[in-house]
Amino acid sequence: MSAPLAGKVALVTGASRGIGKGIALVLAEQGATVYVTGRTLREGDYYLPGSVGGTALACSERGKASGGTGVAVACDHADPTAVAALFARIEEEAGRLDILVNNAFSLSDDLLEPKGFWEKPLSNLEMWNVGVHSNYVAAWHAARLMVPRNSGLIVAISGFAAVTYTYGVVFGTSKSAVDRMARDMAIELAPHGVASLTLWQGLTLTEKARDNLARMGDQMTTSITTMHASSVEHPGRVIAALACDPDVMNRSGGEFITAELAQHYGLTDVDGSVIASARESRGSPVWRPVADLGIHGR
């Protein structure tokens, strides 16, 4: 019996560590060829562990039984030329792209500092550059590979910041923009069989989250710190299920709480636990799938 994602090609941006790495590992384990991008080339280049090469190697190890593999590509998603070269490489080597996970996001170092937006530097707008602008650029390239095949899945990693104050003005605005972008892309992609949707992650035990909780957990809102945290692989399991769902177009354009989709697909976290939805404490998605609204094209 073949692996669920055998023959599929995926790109996970921002996968040196954290959520991106977890998603890449799961997709490779289920048989996909996974291109992983990141700016950390070697261990020690960043204060947290992880590198793009290390993730790719781990993907290939995970994919031994299924045929999945990892391909490391050093890429700064703030550089459109580098991104164009990335997609040109994917087209040349793989000839297709089935899954794009827009995960790369440039978190500011002062994200958790309890200051007003006017007290923080304008350089924090980097979260719009790598997180919003970069999502559009990657999706633009991905659509050019997916539309001719009338197939594909574009997933944007977002969160409850779209409806609940989280970390500050730039962060919340960025996540809101990501959600709306994914929804409007879904409308234009609907006639071409390509799905675009957003996953709302709750508290995820990334390397950075663990570090933040250890250093500044007392400054984070209790609605965040009391959430049932997931592993970095949990969203990967959900994305793999979406990629295998023959009815995924019925979800295109929607915002989905990762924990709720996991329960729908009967998925648990790596430790066997069921991740609880934070809808009650953090808020509800705004955008419904475009098919629910009778939108099937422009």
Would you kindly provide a written description of the structure presented here, covering whatever features stand out?
The chain has helices at 18-29, 52-62, 80-93, 126-146, 169-189, 207-216, 222-225, 234-244, 258-264, 279-282, and strands spanning 9-12, 33-38, 69-74, 99-102, 152-159, 194-201, 255-257. Helix 1 packs parallel to helix 2 (52-62). The mean pLDDT is 91. It starts with 8 loop residues before the first strand and ends in a 16-residue tail after the last helix. The protein is built from ten helices and seven strands. A seven-stranded parallel sheet has the order 3-2-1-4-5-6-7, sandwiched between helices. The chain has one domain: 3-Layer(aba) Sandwich (Rossmann fold). It has 298 residues and is an alpha/beta fold.
User: H/E series, N to C?
Assistant: EHEHEHEHEHEHHHEHH
Q: How many strands?
A: 7
Give the overall form: globular
Look up the CATH topology.
Answer: Rossmann fold
What labels would you give this structure?
298 residues; seven-stranded parallel sheet; 10 helices
Short description:
This protein has 298 residues and is α/β, with parallel strands linked by helices. 39% of the residues lie in helices and 13% in strands.
How are the elements arranged and paired?
Blueprint: E1 9-12, H1 18-29, E2 33-38, H2 52-62, E3 69-74, H3 80-93, E4 99-102, H4 126-146, E5 152-159, H5 169-189, E6 194-201, H6 207-216, H7 222-225, H8 234-244, E7 255-257, H9 258-264, H10 279-282
Parallel strand pairs: 1-2, 1-4, 2-3, 4-5, 5-6, 6-7
